[in-house]
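User: hey, got a sec? need Ornithine cyclodeaminase folded
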Amino acid sequence: MTSLQDADATARALPYPELADEIAALLRDPSVMVPPRIVQALPGGGSLFVMPATDARVAITKLITFVPGNGARGLPTIQGDIVVFDVASGQRTGLLDGPTVTARRTAAVSLLAAQRLAPRRDGPLLIVGAGVQGRSHLEAFAAGLGVREVRVASRQAASADALVAHARALGLDAQRVDDADAALAECPLVVSTTPAQQVVLRGTPRDDAFVAAVGAFTPRMVEWAPEVCRDMAARGTLVVDTRDADHEAGDLLQAGIDVAALPTLADWVSAPRAVRGPVFFKSCGWAGWDLAAARLATRS
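Assistant: Yep! Here you go:
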């Protein structure tokens, strides 16, 4: 029987700490196969993503659209679904809400990276960009790292205030900051989740900082100034989520960094090593993360 899960049911099936653990397990699973995703440009500036993946038990295809201008229409930026199949029988066994999986698995990947790479994990946490990904990262870092202090920066004060209110409802000490670059000096944990249409961060992260750069996931997108990326490459540690980042990590590619020479999150999961700060973790997305979510959701 096919399980059709709406946004709320999908979220309940994917607690952040457990999802981070499932992602780590997937990175150690030799049966996982993830072909390159298809990104089809759409008229008007949107994109259609087709992202299949499989392991020995579960196969998925993620079908979502990304339309940056949807905020002005009052619509979600990401829409679509993840179809889950049983490998042995080929039967469809589940349908998960695509935006919910995207938000939660992306934050869980950042959480796993912070668990393995962050020189300091106590915060304060600075979130730059107060949309869906800002909210999911806030929840993930609170649940998985125990962060209690949060600073929120957004070009729209109302969005920042709404995320601050959500953080306070979770029992966190939260406040809005109007200068994200200045806030870098007091925050060892930083997550950037902006629409990435232009550089929004030019400040220098602390020596003990962990940065999860999430917003830019194509070569043309960018959040961090090229000189900041080059500085962190010279004095710290750069890690990418997967080898797909070699041609998708806009922040690093536009800084002229040889992304193909950087280690991946899987490298750190399989062989932990010492970290030299600051740490810059570049996340671009991968269907394997959606497969991990499907594995967890269908096992619950």
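Quick note: The longest strand covers residues 58-66. Let me know if you need anything else on Ornithine cyclodeaminase.
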